[in-house]
């Protein structure tokens, strides 16, 4: 099982699509409008994001939009056997929100169903055979072939020239390597039940767990991985009422996807480009880098360490004998509430883990931003 695509609820889909293209250097791949929903599709390498704005109460995403701010409403899983995946979910007590459907043309076939996740999150299960690029279940039987779009359920919307945002602004696309992991926040006391649900319904397995505490707040985290693919799903719950996880839950209207980690093999270049384009990142204090090069078991040039510090990148390693490094940093929340954000990550020489050595520094950085938001004025 792999991540097929991520579907966001967005208040203004055209505006958000242009932000992804201009700020994060994603490519504009398609744009559709039906009577009830308008949707944009952006991508970077194998990362596919759908950005939908409900237009009427008949939109399949209207209920989510009524209860939550912009964010991830569906995390789609690609499966090899749709019927088997549905049977497993039903046997575990999962609710099927949309029954199995399929479409086929001379390029290939697509089968899908949508199953309830935790809270308001859903998971579209997608089985693909042949060439099905540009076909997404929530948009109906949609076919995209370069600039030509044909669909019985949706039609392309042509953007006016003055509103067009160029994909690269003279720069080549970044072409991310993929989604490294996705983090789900749940309410206090729900961590065990949520992990159990994903184990039984989708076949995830438990990996490591973490506890992070500061003088002010904290969290519990359990990492889930899927043995039949590349999906890693850490699940967090708050340990106090003033935890940043609790702030997310209150601002999000309940459980939901906190962040998505985008993987690259050129993190310094990627962050520098995103900063030039206006993306905001967490602040890492200069004290974090004091003595870091001396403690690190991997020898890097002084220039490289300077670039890492200049871009606010956190560095972690598994043990003193390791020659691998995990490099990561985090954007500020990308919407108007302190909810969803992105992580950018590089696994230099195949580094494993999630940056456990950085958890405390990361938690404290996000906590500082939380305190700043709470100050008047």
UniProtKB/TrEMBL annotation:
Cofactor: record remark: Binds 1 Fe cation per subunit.
Q: Which GO terms describe its molecular function?
A: 4-hydroxyphenylpyruvate dioxygenase activity; metal ion binding
Which Gene3D superfamilies does the annotation name?
A: 2,3-Dihydroxybiphenyl 1,2-Dioxygenase, domain 1
> Where in this chain does the record put each VOC domain?
2-128, 178-332
Q: Which InterPro entries match?
A: 4OHPhenylPyrv_dOase, 4OHPhenylPyrv_dOase_C, 4OHPhenylPyrv_dOase_N, Glyas_Bleomycin-R_OHBP_Dase, Glyas_Fos-R_dOase_dom, VOC_core
Q: Which cofactor does it need?
A: Fe cation
EC identifiers of the protein: 1.13.11.27
- Out of the domains of life, which is the source? Bacteria
Binding sites annotated in the UniProt record for Fe cation: 181, 259, 343
Sorted alphabetically, the Gene Ontology BP terms of this entry are: L-tyrosine catabolic process
Recite the UniProt keywords alphabetically: Dioxygenase, Iron, Metal-binding, Oxidoreductase, Pyruvate, Repeat
Write down the PROSITE patterns for this protein, in alphabetical order. VOC
Kindly give the SUPFAM superfamilies that the UniProt entry links to this protein: Glyoxalase/Bleomycin resistance protein/Dihydroxybiphenyl dioxygenase
* Pfam families assigned: Glyoxalase, Glyoxalase_4
Broadest EC class?
Answer: oxidoreductase
Q: Which NCBIfam families match?
A: 4HPPD
Q: Which family does it belong to?
A: Belongs to the 4HPPD family.
User: What name is this protein filed under?
Assistant: 4-hydroxyphenylpyruvate dioxygenase
């Amino acid at each position: 099982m792999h991540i097929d695509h991520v579907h966001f609820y967005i208040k203004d889909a055209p505006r958000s699509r242009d932000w992804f293209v201009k700020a994060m250097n994603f490519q504009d791949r398609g744009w559709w409008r039906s009577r009830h929903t308008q949707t944009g599709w952006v991508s970077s390498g194998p990362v596919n994001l759908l950005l939908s704005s409900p237009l009427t109460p008949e939109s399949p995403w209207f209920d989510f939009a009524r209860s939550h701010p912009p964010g991830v409403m569906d995390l789609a899983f690609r499966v090899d056997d749709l019927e088997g995946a549905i049977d497993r979910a039903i046997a575990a007590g999962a609710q099927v929100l949309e029954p199995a459907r399929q479409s086929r043309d001379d390029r290939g076939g697509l089968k899908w169903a949508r199953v309830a996740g935790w809270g308001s999150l859903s998971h579209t299960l997608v089985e693909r055979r042949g060439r099905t690029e540009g076909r997404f279940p929530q948009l109906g039987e949609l076919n995209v072939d370069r600039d030509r779009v044909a669909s019985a359920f949706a039609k392309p919307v042509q953007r006016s020239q003055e509103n067009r945002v160029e994909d690269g602004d003279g720069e080549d696309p970044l072409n991310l390597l993929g989604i490294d992991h996705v983090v789900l926040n749940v309410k206090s006391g729900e961590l065990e039940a949520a992990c159990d649900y994903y184990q039984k319904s989708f076949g995830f397995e438990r990996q490591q767990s973490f506890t992070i505490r500061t003088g002010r707040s904290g969290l519990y985290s359990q990492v889930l991985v899927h043995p039949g693919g590349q999906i890693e799903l850490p699940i967090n719950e708050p340990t106090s009422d003033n935890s940043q996880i609790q702030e997310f839950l209150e601002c999000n209207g309940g459980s939901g996807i906190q962040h998505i980690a985008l993987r690259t093999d050129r993190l310094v270049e990627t962050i520098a480009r995103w900063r030039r384009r206006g993306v905001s990142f967490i602040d890492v204090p200069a004290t974090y880098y004091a003595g870091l090069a001396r403690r690190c078991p991997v020898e890097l040039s002084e220039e490289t360490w300077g670039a890492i510090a200049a871009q606010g990148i956190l560095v972690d390693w598994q043990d003193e004998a390791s020659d691998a490094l995990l490099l990561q940093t985090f954007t500020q929340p990308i919407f108007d509430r302190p909810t969803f954000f992105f992580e950018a990550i590089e696994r230099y020489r195949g580094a494993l883990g999630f940056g456990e050595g950085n958890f405390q520094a990361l938690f404290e950085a996000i906590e500082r931003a939380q305190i700043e938001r709470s100050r008047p004025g």
